[in-house]
Amino acid sequence: MHRPRKEMIAETRAKLITAARHAFGTIGYAEASMDDFTASAGLTRGALYHHFGDKKGLLQAVIAEIDGEMAVRIDEIASRTPSRWQRFVDECTTYIEMALEPEIQRIMFRDGPAVLGDPAQWPNANACVGSMTDHLTRLQQEGMVVTGVDPETTARLINGASSQAAQRIANSSNPEATSKTVVAAFKQLLEGLLKKQGSQPV
């Protein structure tokens, strides 16, 4: 019995993404050959062009997959925190610290920006800004964050800062040490949003 066309298309796409992800993560985008990863997926270059347009389109698909996995992990870690403020801080810093992981470091924070441009313009950026805006709006309503700042504008600034922070770690000659410095500075920036009161949330 023939499998549905939709299922076969999904399988072909998945095979190409898996092969490309391995190549991009180990040898990098520039060195990865389309012929190598189509061969390792048991497919033709024509299949790649049909599903993704070109190598750049395939990189976008790999980034979308990794980004989805990162979002799940960030949510898992942040959901364990006792307060909305700490969740917000943990979401941001967990994202930045993921720049220490070799695959994420190379694909998301080195090759991705070099090939696809500013991550703030990537399709996933709006969802991230939306989530941050929601957190900041609620934190303002709860009286934890200063009320004189616009939540969406602030969210966009924080999103840009976290992206730059991750790229700084990814391109550092000593990522571990840079991560500590960057995260400390980033947390200090975020604390500037807190209302100055007797007992600040921790």
UniProtKB/TrEMBL annotation:
<feature type="domain" description="HTH tetR-type">
    <location>
        <begin position="10"/>
        <end position="70"/>
    </location>
</feature>
<dbReference type="InterPro" id="IPR001647">
    <property type="entry name" value="HTH_TetR"/>
</dbReference>
<dbReference type="InterPro" id="IPR050109">
    <property type="entry name" value="HTH-type_TetR-like_transc_reg"/>
</dbReference>
<dbReference type="Pfam" id="PF00440">
    <property type="entry name" value="TetR_N"/>
</dbReference>
<dbReference type="InterPro" id="IPR049484">
    <property type="entry name" value="Rv0078-like_C"/>
</dbReference>
<feature type="DNA-binding region" description="H-T-H motif">
    <location>
        <begin position="33"/>
        <end position="52"/>
    </location>
</feature>
<dbReference type="GO" id="GO:0003700">
    <property type="term" value="F:DNA-binding transcription factor activity"/>
</dbReference>
<dbReference type="InterPro" id="IPR009057">
    <property type="entry name" value="Homeodomain-like_sf"/>
</dbReference>
<protein>
    <submittedName>
        <fullName>TetR/AcrR family transcriptional regulator</fullName>
    </submittedName>
</protein>
<dbReference type="GO" id="GO:0000976">
    <property type="term" value="F:transcription cis-regulatory region binding"/>
</dbReference>
<dbReference type="Pfam" id="PF21351">
    <property type="entry name" value="TetR_C_41"/>
</dbReference>
<keyword id="KW-0238">DNA-binding</keyword>
